[in-house]
Every structure is written in structure tokens, then in C-alpha cells.
Design goal:
Blueprint (H helix, E strand, L loop, with lengths): L6 H17 L2 H10 L5 H9 L18 H13 L5 H16 L2 H13 L4 E4 L15 E5 L2 E8 L10 E7 L10 E7 L5 E7 L5 E13 L3 E2 L5 H13 L4 H17 L12 H29 L7 H24 L17 H12 L6 H12 L5
Parallel strand pairs: 1-4
Antiparallel strand pairs: 2-3, 3-7, 4-5, 5-8, 6-7
Helix pairs in contact: 1-4, 4-8, 5-6, 5-7, 8-9, 8-10, 9-10, 10-11, 10-12
Catalytic activity: a 2,3-saturated acyl-CoA + A = a 2,3-dehydroacyl-CoA + AH2
InterPro entries: Acyl-CoA_Oxase/DH_mid-dom, Acyl-CoA_Oxase/DH_mid-dom_sf, AcylCo_DH-like_C, AcylCo_DH/oxidase_C, AcylCoA_DH/ox_N, AcylCoA_DH/ox_N_sf, AcylCoA_DH/oxidase_NM_dom_sf, Mycobact_Acyl-CoA_DH
Protein name: Acyl-CoA dehydrogenase
């Protein structure tokens, strides 16, 4: 087992970092923040044009046949820069599933456009009454000849108001056990009967509740077999559960170090020289290191052909909870000024401390709550009973 990066991967990281320094201007960041939408078409096309969209995909699909380590440094740099890539990530995730289990007609219709940044796909899993219990979905899809009629609603359909499609989980056999009667569909969001309403999160992000009222789609939009939706969905959940959030801790640490080095206390001593300040920064640095190692273990396993079933949730739950701890610790260290808002002129470090404290709370929910992650670790990693 090793977590070191070779020279080629480090060179790839340098290319990514240089590109992001060019495009992630202060004006661009502020526009994204004020819109609450983590997507920009021109930015996404720039990733495609520079080979930063799907580096591990085969070249015939628009990828570069790169390694899992190259993909990991790409994710690290994009997250550290807070780049607007969430819709690009969900598009690539669903495209990967279509590539594995989709009908040939859907592959021909979707894959090329997705890899060029010409079309986008949002996720439609969670429902207002189901929370993290995704399999309890009640959105119905009823067969009508060669078509399906969909009725129901989905919560937290982030980017559902701008995406071209939604990767939708629907119940097709209500009489079967909840995991057995589900089917996955790719639903065009311009279909009659689809409506998206804004929902704003604590961090200022816009997500959506989406409604489906007698939405008709052809059977060609089904992904996988009828009533085999849970197996299809598991392919995406596995990727989501293996997400690591360490780069956000790194960015928080960098801002805290800059603040401490530039701030002088009332007694004339630079804050960075104070033992308590150094102790808190060291604690954040250690949690970042652990988060990085846990995530890179998942990458090493993937490169070795192993599936990080429990290791992915370990990386996710530790890194997100570490981000919460670190952001709260730094706000306490900086004091009342730390709660000055993002982009407020007098806020230390452009208001990053206040923003990251709000943002961190949501990360413990994204891609499955900490409780869900711990259940996976216990049951599938340790073999404990439900």
C-alpha cells in the first residue's frame, strides 16, 4: 500500500492548478456564491477542453486513459478551489452507469454529449418524506404500453432547475419489498409535468424540490431492468459514499494560517506565535492529514481492483465531521470577527471562516448522512447485524 504520487501525476496536478488559477477569479467566485448555483457552462467546457473532465475514461469516449491517482488529484484541486463542478460530477457519475448498464440507444444518445459538456444530469433520489432512506421512495412509475407515467416528488434535486435530465428512482412494483420494486429512469427535465421549486440551504446553495405530475416517458429512458433499480442505484451510491472532503479542511487551514500570520494581538505579539493558536492549527492539520490518508486508501484500493465498501464511508464520515470540528475551532479562535459574512469587506479572509462553518454542516448530510455511513461500516465492514 502506498499513497505517494509519481512525477506524471504531480505534473498533471500542476496543470490543473494553473488552469484553476486562471479561471477561478475573485469576481467569478463571488458571482457563483451570490447565485447559489455550483455550475457554469463555460467552466465545464473548459474542463473538457483541457482534459480535466473524465481523465480515467477511455479515449474513445473522450477520456485520457489516466490512472485513479490522476483522477484523485483532479478532485482534490477542484474541491480545494471550490470550483463549480457538482453538476459535472453528477453528469459523469450517471454517464458511467449508463456506460455499464444502459441500453445501446441511450448510450448513443447520452454519452458523447455528456463527455463534451453539452448535456447535464441531476440526481433524483431523496424524497420529502423519506430522508436518508432512499429505498422508501414512493414516486410511482406505472407502465402504459411502451411508456411510463411518473407521479411524485423528489427533494434536494440540486441543479434540477438547469439540468437537461434527472436520474430518477421510482417505484414500479408497490407490492414488492421496498428494495425489490424500484426502477431507475433518465427523465428529460423539459418533459410536460415537471416542475422545480427552489430550496435554499444553510450554506446559501440553491437546491430544489422537483414535482412530477403525469410525466410520460418512453421505455427507452429506463436504465437497467424493471424492478432492478436498487442494483443500478448502488453503483452511484458507492461512488458518492467514497467521497473525501479533506481539501476543504486544507483551504480552511490555509486561511487560518494567513490570518494568524497577519494579525497582531493587543500585546503586540503576532497571533501565529501564540501557543494556543499553534495548537489549534496543528489539530486542524492533523485532521486534514488523516482525511487525506483515508481517501487515498480508497484510491489505492480502486487502482488495485478492490471495492472500498466500508473504507469509502470511513473517509466520508471522518473528513466531513473533521471539517465541522475544524471550522468551529477556527471561528472560536478568531473570535467575533470570524462571523462576518462571505465577501463582506471587513471580514477576515474574505469571510471564509463564517462561510465554511455554515457549509461544513451540510457535508455531513451530502451523499448519505453520518448515521448512514456508520451503518454501512458496521454492517458491511464489520459484519454486525442490522
Amino acid at each position: 500500500m502506498h499513497f505517494q504520487l509519481d512525477a506524471e501525476t504531480e505534473a498533471y496536478r500542476a496543470e490543473i492548478r494553473a488552469h484553476l488559477q486562471d479561471v477561478m477569479t475573485a469576481e467569478f467566485e463571488e458571482r457563483l456564491y451570490r447565485s447559489g448555483v455550483a455550475h457554469d457552462d463555460a467552466f465545464a467546457k473548459g474542463l473538457v477542453d483541457n482534459g480535466f473532465f473524465a481523465p480515467t475514461w477511455p479515449s474513445e469516449y473522450g477520456g485520457q486513459n489516466r490512472t485513479e491517482w490522476d483522477d484523485q488529484v483532479l478532485k482534490e484541486e477542484l474541491m480545494h478551489a471550490e470550483a463549480p463542478v457538482y453538476l459535472s460530477e453528477t453528469t459523469r457519475m450517471v454517464a458511467s452507469i449508463i456506460r455499464q448498464v444502459g441500453q445501446q440507444s441511450m448510450k448513443d444518445r447520452i454519452l458523447a454529449g455528456a463527455m463534451k459538456g453539452d448535456l447535464t444530469i441531476a440526481l433524483g433520489f431523496t424524497e420529502p418524506e423519506c430522508g436518508s432512506d432512499v429505498a422508501a421512495a414512493t414516486t410511482r412509475a406505472m407502465r402504459d404500453g411502451d411508456e411510463w407515467i411518473i407521479n411524485g416528488s423528489k427533494m434536494f434535486t440540486t441543479n434540477g432547475h438547469i439540468a437537461d435530465y434527472v436520474f430518477l428512482l421510482a417505484r414500479t412494483s408497490p407490492e414488492k419489498p421496498k428494495h425489490k420494486g424500484l426502477t431507475m429512469f433518465l427523465v428529460p427535465l423539459d418533459s410536460p409535468g415537471v416542475e422545480a421549486q427552489a430550496v435554499w440551504t444553510l450554506s446559501g446553495e440553491r437546491t430544489n424540490i422537483t414535482f412530477y405530475s403525469d410525466v410520460r416517458i418512453g421505455d427507452e429512458w429506463r436504465i437497467g431492468d424493471v424492478d432492478a433499480g436498487w442494483q443500478v442505484l448502488s453503483l452511484s451510491l458507492q461512488d458518492e459514499h467514497a467521497s473525501g472532503w479533506g481539501p476543504h479542511i486544507a483551504r480552511l487551514l490555509a486561511h487560518a494560517e494567513q490570518w494568524a500570520a497577519a494579525t497582531v494581538a493587543d500585546d503586540g505579539v503576532v497571533r501565529l506565535a501564540e501557543p494556543d493558536v499553534r495548537r489549534r492549527l496543528a489539530r486542524v492539520a492533523m485532521e486534514y492529514e488523516v482525511s487525506t490518508l483515508l481517501q487515498r486508501r480508497c484510491v489505492w484500493m480502486a487502482e488495485a481492483g478492490q471495492v472500498p465498501v466500508a473504507e469509502g464511508p470511513m473517509a466520508k464520515v471522518f473528513s466531513t465531521e473533521a471539517l465541522v470540528r475544524a471550522s468551529q475551532d477556527i471561528v472560536e479562535l478568531v473570535g467575533p470577527d470570524a462571523v462576518r459574512s462571505y465577501f463582506e469587506p471587513s471580514a477576515p479572509e474574505q469571510g471564509r471562516f463564517e462561510y465554511l462553518m455554515r457549509f461544513s454542516v451540510g457535508t455531513t448530510i451530502y451523499a448519505g448522512t453520518s448515521e448512514v455511513q456508520r451503518s454501512i461500516i458496521a454492517q458491511r465492514g464489520l459484519g454486525l447485524p442490522r
